[in-house]
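Readers of this paper often ask what the protein records in our data store actually look like. The remainder of this section carries one protein's record, kept here as part of the documentation.

:::
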Amino acid sequence: MLRAMLPFIENFWKKNKSINLFLEFLAIIIVVFTSVNSMNGIIMGLIITITIFSFQFLNTSYLNMTYVFVLVLLFINFIFLVLSNSFSLNSASTFKYFYVFCRDILIYVLFFYLILKRLDIFTGILKRNLIDRIAFIFLLMGIVYLILPIGHIDFNLKLGSFKQIFNFVFLFFIGRMLAFSESFNENSIKKLSRLIISLGVIFSVYGIMEIFILPYFLGMDPLLFFGGDKYLSLMFGANSDIYGGGTINISGLTGNFYSPAFGMSIRRASSLLIDPVALSFFLSFVLVLNFCYSKTKVLNTILISSCLILTLGKGGILTSLVSITFWALVRFKKIGKLVAFLTFGISAGLFTLFLRTDSSVMDHLNGLTNGVKDFIEYPLGKGLGSSGNLATLVAGSNNNNLISGGESTVGSLLSQIGILGGLLFILLIVLLMLRIKAIKFTNDNQNQLKIFLSGLLMGGFSASLFSEGVFQFNALGLLFLFIAAMISVSEKSKKFF
C-alpha cells in the first residue's frame, strides 16, 4: 500500500509548485518565530523544515540526490556542533534524538524509500548478482542478532554496535539504487569524484589551519571557539545510560582529539568532520580519487597528505599506503616492487615507533586478540554490543563480565556475530575487489581508479583488524556507496563480466 502511494505523493508535489513553495516559506517562518520563544519551538520548526525539504530532495534527480546525501553525511557533525550552542545541558536527550533524526534516520529512510521506489531493480540485482545477495544476507544476519535477546546487553548499546558494523551495507545498497537511473553514467562518477575531492581539499585546508593557524588568531582551540565543549558535553549527557557518564578531560575536549604518540599528548586534526579517526579514513579515500580525477594533483596531494598525517590516524595512513602500494605493483611491476618494499619499510618503522610511544596501540592489538579468543569460545558469537571499544565503556560502569574490549572491527565482529558473520564480511570484501576489477571503463583515469579502489578495500580491511571506526558512514562508508554506484553504471552499460 505504501509503495502504491509513492507515485501519487510525488506527482502531487511536482505539479503543485505553489503549495510546495508556500510550505517551505511557512516552515522557515515557523523556525524564525518559534526560536524566539523556546528551544522546543526551534526543534519543531527545524524538523518541519527538514521534512518539507526532504520531499524536494526525494523528487530531484538521483545524481543530485547523491550529492545532497553525501554533503549531509559529511557536514552533519559540524552543523550540530554549531547548533549545540542553542541547547542547554538539561536538554541533552532532545539534542541526541534530533541528531539521530537527522543522521541515522536519513540513511534508513532513504534506503527503504529507494527499495519501495525501485523494488523491481532491487529484486533484479539480488537475483542476478552474488555480491548483492551476500551483502543482503549479511545485513539480515545483523538485524537478527539485533533482535535476538543474547546476553544482558542494553538495546541502545546493541543498536550502536549494529550501526558500527552494518551501516556501510545500507550505504552500498543506497549507491546501487541511486545509480540505476538515466541521470547516472560514467561522467556522473567523474562529477561525484570531483565533488568528494573538493570537499576533501576544503577539509584538509581547514584541518591544517585548525592545528597551526587558527589557535593563534582565535586565542583558543578552534573546536572550543565553535562550541565543541558544549557539543561533547551534550553528547555525553545524552548517552550517560550507555557510557555511564563521561568527562571532557584534555583542554576542554575528549581524549580522542589527542594522541599520546611520540611520548606526548598531541592535538589531532578533526576538521569539519569533528572526528580525527573518520577524517583519516575519509582522506585516504579522497587521496586516491585525487590521483585519478583532479586537475591539480600535486597541490591537492600535498594538502590532503599533510592533513592525513595531522590526524595521527594510524588506520587511515595504513589504508592509504596499502592502496598506493597495490597500485604501484599492478601498474609498474619492477618499480612497483621497489615502491612496495619501501612502503613496507616505512609502515614497519611507523608501527614500531607507535608501539614504543603510543599507549593506545596495545588496545588496538587487544581488540583483535580478544575477538579471536571470544570467537573460539563462542563460534556463533556473544551477541551485538558484547565486544569493542563502545562495549568497554559500558563494562567500566556496569561490570558486565560478558563484555570484552579493544578496538578492532574484525575482532568485535567475530566476537559478536561469530564465524558466519566473519566469513560473510570477508567474502563481501573479496567479491567487491573482483567486481571492481571486472568493470570496463572507456578512459585510462577511470581504469586506474579501479586499481586504487581495490587497494583501498584491501587497506581498509587491513585497518579494520586494528580499528573500530573504519567503515562508519563518514569514513570509508562512503567508499562503498561510491563503488556501488560504479557497479550499477557498469551494469547499465553492459560493460561487466
Observations:
- The two ends are 37 Å apart (CA to CA).
